[in-house]
Amino acid sequence: RARTPRGGGTRGFVLEDAGKLEGYAYLTEKSHAVGDYDVVVSDAVALSRRAARRLLSFFAEHRTLARAVIWYGGPSDPLLGELPEAAYEMTLGHRWMMRVVHAASALASRGYSAELSTALELELSDDLLPENAGRITLELARGSAEVRPGGRGRLKLGPNGLAPLYTGFATPWALKRRGLLDGDDESLARAAAIFAGPAPAMSEMF
User: Fold this and answer.
1) Across 91-117, average pLDDT
2) Which of 25, 33, 69, 135 lies deepest, with the highest CB count within 10 Å?
3) How confident is the model at residue 205 (pLDDT cuts 50, 70, 90)?
4) Burial environment of residue 147 by CB neighbours within 10 A (0 to 12, 13 to 18, 19 or more)
5) Do residues 15 and 24 lie in contact, with contact meaning Cβ atoms separated by under 8 Å?
6) Is the pLDDT confidence value at 206 over 70?
7) How many whole angstroms separate alpha carbon 201 and alpha carbon 52?
8) Mean pLDDT of 107-136
9) pLDDT: is 198 or 87 the higher one?
10) Which of 73, 79, 75 is nearest to 55 (CA)?
11) Exposed/middle/buried for 67, CB within 10 Å: 0-12, 13-18, 19+?
């Protein structure tokens, strides 16, 4: 899909420094009726700030004939952060859906900060998958996680609260305001530290 997207092929370009690959981009052109076109970036990678800025300047060099440069990314796309001004427009936003189908396994294998050593006592409810329901304790030590049954259930949530918390899509406080999670302030703060991270996003439709 990066090299041969729907509707035609692409041209590939690489950025090198002292013989080492620093970035690349695959571009195609989407023509308009009057003769000009949009540059569509099917894939782009920059391994450094210099590479990101060079990619952006390379895109801008098409401005004599191109109306716009189009690419697909998330809300925290690093290329957007290198633009000197907010000279871009988001024209398509599609919320994807996620459902945790095995809570204990998902929590144990997620991946966490190596700096965290703490525990979170959860009480899960799930009408569709009753094997996910009950009290469990998530214990973290230097980035490794273990899930064991039991605990006081200080953080209460169902599948509609677990998915956005697990992915880092929403903070515990935002979920509590929406009625998707309930717990004491200490448990909310622990959950925020455990599940912190950039907003999840995908640059590809499927």
Assistant:
1) 90
2) 25
3) low
4) middle
5) yes
6) no
7) 19
8) 96
9) 198
10) 79
11) middle
**How far is Cα 120 from Cα 194, in angstroms, rounded to an integer?**
9
Q: Give the pairing type, strands 155-157 and 117-124.
A: parallel
CA atoms within 13 A on the CB side of 205: 9
Mean of pLDDT values over 151-159: 97
Dihedral angle over CA of 85, 90, 94, 99, nearest 10:
10
Q: In what order do the strands lie in the sheet with 144-149?
A: 144-149, 134-141, 117-124, 155-157, 181-183
Angstrom distance (rounded) from CA 120 to CA 135: 11
For the chain, how many residues are written? Answer: 206
What single-letter DSSP state applies at residue 136?
A: E
For the beta carbon of residue 120, count every other beta carbon within 10 angstroms: 20
Calpha distance 150→20 (Å, rounded): 52
Instruction: Provide the 3-class DSSP secondary structure of residue 148.
Output: strand
Tokens of 93: 């936003």
pTM for this predicted structure: 0.73
The residues near 177 (Cβ < 8 Å, ≥ 6 apart) are none
Provide the H-helix boundaries in the chain. 49-60, 78-81, 103-109, 159-167, 172-177, 185-194
Q: What gap in Å lies between CA 186 and CA 175, rounded to an integer?
A: 15
Q: Which of 116, 114, 119, 52 is nearest to 82 (CA)?
A: 52
